[in-house]
Specification:
CATH superfamily of the largest domain: Jelly Rolls
Shape: globular
Order of helices and strands: HHEEEEEEHEEHHHHHH
Oligomer: single chain
């Protein structure tokens, strides 16, 4: 578990053995059952996690019950409601396990202290945020407003190729901003 965690860290920044060892010390292994929440909407988050195994949905539920899925997180991903953690405010999003999961959780306060003691971990964090929450976000914003649902689905298939079979149709439709019926029509049209 720790080897994959180290590999994921080093995708974003080269870290010394000392920094990695310090990071590993703040990790707490946890297991969540399918349907368990890592974070509920409206809760003030206190931690991040690295996913060893399993699948999570990052979503917002509106007052009328509509659910909009912003992102899916699977193995070797980091999860958190980052904006709420930074702002120390209630999260607009929930993070729920879609399968049995195993994670390495770490508290925000411990992580902040770690970044002060080991600035290279701060560089990892900056690079991670830039790549996953800034650079990756722009195309999603444009896609939802200007691309057809069919094109968005094809791009979803490319991005989430390894997990699509683990998702239910209504989850994919929610991510795409369409109904399950519309998704069925798109799938049929693609098969022809």
């Amino acid at each position: 578990m720790i080897e994959k965690f180290k590999e994921e860290l080093e995708k974003y920044s080269q870290l010394s053995t000392e920094s990695i060892q310090a990071f590993v010390k703040i990790l707490k292994p946890q297991s969540l059952n399918k349907g368990d929440y890592f974070l509920r909407q409206g809760q003030v988050p206190k931690s991040y996690a690295y996913i060893k195994s399993g699948l999570f949905s990052y979503f917002h539920t509106y007052e009328n019950g509509d659910i909009v899925i912003k992102k899916f997180f699977s193995e070797n991903s980091f999860i958190a409601s980052t904006a709420a953690l930074i702002g120390k405010k209630p999260s607009l999003f929930a993070i729920q396990a879609l399968e049995e999961t195993k994670i390495l959780e770490y508290q925000n306060t411990d992580f902040r202290q770690l970044m002060k003691k080991h600035p290279e971990i701060a560089f990892f964090y900056i690079n991670y945020l830039e790549q996953n929450w800034v650079v990756a976000k722009e195309p999603l914003e444009i896609n939802l407003k200007y691309k057809t649902a069919k094109v968005r689905y094809e791009e979803f298939q490319s991005e989430y190729e390894t997990i699509e079979s683990r998702l239910k149709q209504h989850q994919i439709a929610s991510y795409l901003g369409i109904t399950p019926t519309q998704l069925s029509r798109i799938k049929k049209a693609i098969k022809k």
